[in-house]
Amino acid sequence: MISGFQVRPGFFLYPGTTVIPGGVNFTIQSRGASSCELLLFHREAEEPFAVLPFPDHYRIGFVYSMIVFGLDIEEFEYAYRLDGPYEPKKGLLFDKRQILLDPYAKAVTGQSRWGCKNDISHGYRARVVRNNFDWGAEKHTPLLMSDTIIYELHVRGFTKDTSSGVDHPGTFRGVMEKIPYLKELGINTVELMPVFEFDEMRDCRLIDENQLLDYWGYNPVSFFAPNTSYASSSEYNQEGWELKQLIKALHEAGMDVIFDVVFNHTAEGNEEGPYISFRGFDNNIYYLLTPDGQYYNFSGCGNSLNCNHPVVQNLILDCLRYWVTDYHVDGFRFDLASILGRNEDGSPMSQPPLLQSLAFDSILGKVKLIAEAWDAGGLYQVGSFPSWRRWAEWNGKYRDDMRRFLKGDYGVIGSAALRIVGSPDLYHPKERGSNASVNFLTCHDGFSLNDLYSYNTKHNEANGWGNTDGTDSNDSWNCGFEGETDDPDVCRLRMRMMMNAFAVLLCSRGTPMFLSGDEFADTRFGNNNPYCQDNLISWLNWDLLEKNRNLFSFVKYMIAFRKKHTVICRDLEKSRFGFPSVSFHGTVPWHPDLAYDSHVLGVMFSGQNETSGYEDTVYLAVNTYWEAVYLTLPPLPDGFEWRIAVNTGDPLRQTFPEPDMPKTKGSVLLGERSVIVFVAYRNDIFS
């Protein structure tokens, strides 16, 4: 008996909490602690109603485990206090006064009301969660990377604005209500920005009467707990239920789900930050520390997780396995993933144990692993991220080279050509496979697509940092006017530039990704770093869908076109035309002009369609010059002809579905700043 409860030694191999008949198992580990106490609270109470010290013989090695009988999981919250040495210069920060969150907590209390500031002096507490969600007979098969089209969205911002028309704005259920829209668009993979529990009020500020929050959520409080403020109703002891419903519904609609995960740092921040969890359990194990006990800050957020320490490796592996087995997640995008490959002294490792373990883990064997292959400490690994042929990368060089090329910069056409065909200069097919590149022009971080062609410079004044935050390297062009305008010529040009961007992105080899709202020209009003803007700057304005319906229809068409013409996505059987699988061209076929001042590029993909056996040949022609040029197409064998599928320079109609694709002779006028996509067809196929 301890504090009036019957107890016994617990299940030492099961970290976190485990419900058993008549009780709950509590297991934690700490290498440096000298003692540990379990604290039990009534819901939202300030003081614990019971404190249960772990007896010495309830500890094996560095693991504490105890079963407490007679507990009703609906009637308590729990936390820990640990005692041990306090020697900051050695990285030891044990403090028995601090209330600590279970590192394996499946739910964090006091976080379910968005925008309500909690008193963290009382500590973060956990709740025991029932794992009784019924997945039914779900048999979702994750897509191949080559078939994947990623749509990045923020759960709250996607439907928070009243224009979204949903019944549960800003929630997982709100996203569910938009699944028919996603299906209509043709999206097959949804990437959710962070849904791990975070405290949006941690650094709240008031700027010009606007409350600024940690809106994006890249400051995790708990790796195992879903963000309960994204649920449309309270889920006491069933936290994650609505998120599971969303994932199940997306799977039923044929879509994969990718989580944006943040294992590079935590919300505990730097030396001035709060005790939440890891700092009080084993600060010198969980964080990368300088020789004098200070925090290395490769994340730009105050600390960096010590990912290649065996204890931290196990935590991250356990976490990802949990999301895959209990939530059926299909993949993960790792924020600032280069930190995951740093050694304990901060230096980059050539064969990081964590990254290798993730690549070969059996439970994770079929999930997508996508690295943001850089960090805030200057380590840039695009094209060189340790991969074991399992890791894909956000291709930052695709974004940068293609932005410059599409707006007409000189000297980038050679790089642009390589980016369109999968960046083989960065990802050698024999070493990285053919789908290591995640191609993108926009994401949450930076300009939206509309703003990319509406602003020459960032306009982040609303963030309260004097417009000093956010990158200055946007490679954007305002098309002749800074910001919003009613000038019809500027508006037409901007629309064509956005169509050009989507046409090239969806005709590039690799996995395409774009930011939600780009398909209908959503704007952030020139803010390229709206991480703190929980307002109209970040919320999608769905009224723009009707205003820019033509752009939406274009993107929908291009997605369907990419799915039909798999020759864009991967090498097929050898072309019966005798064409190579990929080739480059200029205004004259087979003669690409890669000179410094060249702005015209032709890329042809050719092979036999794997399903139909028909010849599948697609020719992408791009003119980023401000004058039209005549383009000669490669001759086709007798019985075949070129037809136009897309022409962004056509003032009346930009897309042409079968069988309305116009025929074209050997030469065609490629308009200024425009893209034409041609397809080779038998000349009798539409007769």
The mean pLDDT is 96
Taking pLDDT < 50 over at least 5 consecutive residues as the criterion, the unreliable ranges are none
Give the oligomeric state of the chains in this entry, treating copies of one chain as homo and distinct chains as hetero.
single chain
The helix count comes to 14
CATH domain topology of the domain at 570-682? Immunoglobulin-like
Strand order in the sheet with the most strands: 11-12-17-18-19-20-21-22
- Named CATH architecture of the domain at 570-682: Sandwich
Entry summary:
Helices cover 19% and strands 21% of the residues.
Characterization of the model:
With 687 residues, the protein is of the alpha/beta class. The protein has a domain at 570-682: Immunoglobulin-like. The protein has 14 helices and 30 strands. The strands form 8 sheets. It has an 8-stranded parallel beta barrel. Strands 23-24-25-30-27-28 form a 6-stranded antiparallel beta sheet, covered by helices on one side. Strand 24 (600-608) and strand 25 (615-623) form a beta hairpin. Helix 8 (396-406) crosses helix 9. The chain is elongated, with a radius of gyration of 27 Å. The N and C termini lie far apart (87 Å).
